[in-house]
Specification:
Distance between the termini of chain A: 53 Å
Number of helices of chain A: 9
Radius of gyration of chain A: 20 Å
DNA-binding region (chains A, B): 38-57
Organism (chains A, B): Mesobacillus maritimus
Structural class of chain A: mainly alpha
Largest sheet of chain A: none
Strand content of chain A: under 5%
InterPro entries (chains A, B): Homeodomain-like_sf, HTH-type_Tx_Regulator, HTH_TetR, TetR_C_Firmicutes
Helix content of chain A: 55-70%
Mean pLDDT of chain A: 85
Keywords (chains A, B): DNA-binding, Repressor
Oligomer: homodimer
Protein name (chains A, B): TetR/AcrR family transcriptional regulator
Chain lengths: 195, 195
DNA sequence: TTATTAATTGATACTGTGTCAATAAAGTAT
DNA sequence: ATACTTTATTGACACAGTATCAATTAATAA
């Protein structure tokens, strides 16, 4: 590689960006007064100067975009390695997906306000489902419903689950989703009901 | 009644409110430059004075709230009368629901940006589904999946359908939704496949 | 220690908010 | 048609937030 992948970054930058991101999450949680997030408020909450914000971000959209990408890259990182070996570990990608969200429930709840986040989360789900369908294709199970229907309905369930404060366990939710699509096995791989 | 339900309203008010609502929809459609809607822009688009806006609305939130309620009251009006006689007409509430959205696709597409609108649309779906379940309860069909799962997955599908520009017909979509929940009849009431 | 880089400060021009009093225009009623 | 009432416009106001400076202070890296 021509560039060092771990260029040392000034710790002040790391600190400042982290503080602004935490401030953003903190402000987004205050849905009570429909708190419009402003650079002023972010700077106050982060206990940094307003001008400092502009040293790192173009505007609030820019900060939000970076946060969205970081959150979803971490999620994808948890899913993708599993694609190859989920037959070994017995953990379905959808379960890894739900477990990661479950472990970062507050973060995902506030991020769901962002349209771009929702779009990208949907795309990750489409990926998970299409890979699953690819595997199932050879196994004789006929696919009846268009993938957009399956993906969007799953997305609806997951969105509801996050917004409701993740009331079910990831395993239970995965089972319910599978039940919905007549996959009569539970998330652990055990047969629930004969077809 | 003590009050006349049709108090005559100054035509200038009707006209002004209509112009502001149209201006709002017009601005919301311009997602290209992430157009933040401002009172300034609304007044320009409506070809009215900025101060006039404040004669009718507290702020932009207030305008949006009124629009959301009007749109969804009209939708509810199309659904509710059907509850009683859908066995006569053969039209399921979910089909009336989808048909109304289909006929006002652009309006619903822009309104979906609003969180309150999404919440209320979801609640209408919950109502439709719970009434349907009430009917099915006596017919021996066992209900396997929690209603929140059914409602949120349906909401996901409908949301996707609206955002994608309503690519399927209401009847086809209703069929797909029913297929998903193992209701083996199509929206016209014909048997599609034996259980 | 000494460059170097980041953060703060105070200033700036700009856009948008929400409200007002005064005036013009449109609708209602006789 | 006239007088009365309500709505809309205009220009002004104080205020809050944006995005960008140049100059200064503080922290980091060599």
């Amino acid at each position: 590689m021509s560039t060092n992948s771990k260029q040392r970054v000034d710790p002040r930058i790391t600190r400042t960006k982290k503080l602004f991101k935490e401030a953003m999450i903190s402000l987004l949680q205050e849905n009570d007064d429909k708190s419009k997030v402003t650079v002023q408020k972010l700077a106050n909450r982060a206990e940094l100067n307003r001008a400092t914000f502009y040293l790192h971000y173009q505007d609030i959209e820019d900060l939000m975009e970076q946060m969205v990408n970081e959150v979803l890259e971490e999620l994808s990182g948890k899913i993708n390695p599993v694609f190859g070996d989920h037959e070994n570990t017995g953990t379905l990608p959808i379960v890894s997906f739900l477990e990661h969200i479950y472990d970062h429930a507050v973060l995902f709840q506030v991020m769901l306000e962002n349209k771009d986040f929702r779009r990208k989360l949907f795309n990750i789900l489409v990926e998970i489902i299409s890979i699953r369908r690819e595997i199932k294709k050879g196994s004789g199970t006929s696919v009846k419903v268009p993938i957009e229907i399956v993906a969007s309905s799953t997305f609806g369930i997951v969105t509801w689950w996050i917004q409701s404060g993740t009331p079910y366990s990831p395993i239970y939710l995965a089972d319910q989703i599978n039940l919905l699509y007549r996959k009569n096995i539970n998330a652990q791989g055990n047969t629930v009901k004969k077809g």
